User: What shape does this take?
Amino acid sequence: MDAETVLTTTRSVRRKLDFDREVPQDVLDACLRIAQQAPAAGAMAAQFRWLLVRDADTKAAIAAHSRETAEAAWEKYGHLVEARALASAQHLVRNLDRVPVLAIPCMIGRPPSDAFSQSAYFGSAYPAIWSFQLALRARGLGSSICGYHLQDHEADVARLLGIPDDVMQISLLAVAYTTQRDFRPAARPALEDITYLERWGSPL
Ligand SMILES: Cc1cc2nc3c(=O)[nH]c(=O)nc-3n(C[C@H](O)[C@H](O)[C@H](O)COP(=O)(O)O)c2cc1C
Assistant: This one.
């Protein structure tokens, strides 16, 4: 798969995850090594960690926490979400315990409060997360970020996994082989509507 195809067809896969196909560790290792090549801001690179969860009971406990938060949110705000996207998110959360691997990217140290440091903090995690997702896609796997538990249950999941208090779970990714190979570029706003030249609001 060429780079442009990988970059434009790596979707958040929720309905097409193969819950029954084992994900070998060496395949994950290859993707995580690629993710290590992502940019990070100076010392932040040394603060980043991955925690992989395969154990069925542990996944079930994380899934229960995710479900609790997500179901409450959907009850309140579900009507604001497009029906198809909602059904897709619900499918994943309601089956999260069946996903072969849950990958939790973490940062040692809690998020800073100023804009410069925040930018460095989160900006040192998401390039690695995205590279990981791209590398998975190139190998026939898919993933979706699924961070609902962070809202009310980050501490519960931290306790479950032995994550120290000063470590932030940046998110959680569901990882599995996909049941189809072909994904398409998604609809996005027109480039002219989101890109300005020289001054805010000034068209290209
Ligand atoms: C920071 C971040 C957090 C996200 N959190 C969730 C989430 O909690 N649940 C979910 O279903 N998708 C989540 N997503 C995936 C987005 O919903 C998805 O990227 C978006 O709908 C566009 O779809 P696509 O990735 O297939 O292009 C998240 C994505 C990002 C970048």
Q: What stands out?
A: The pocket of flavin mononucleotide is lined by residues 11-12, 89, 92, 144-148, 171, 186 (CB under 6 Å). The chain has a mean pLDDT of 97.
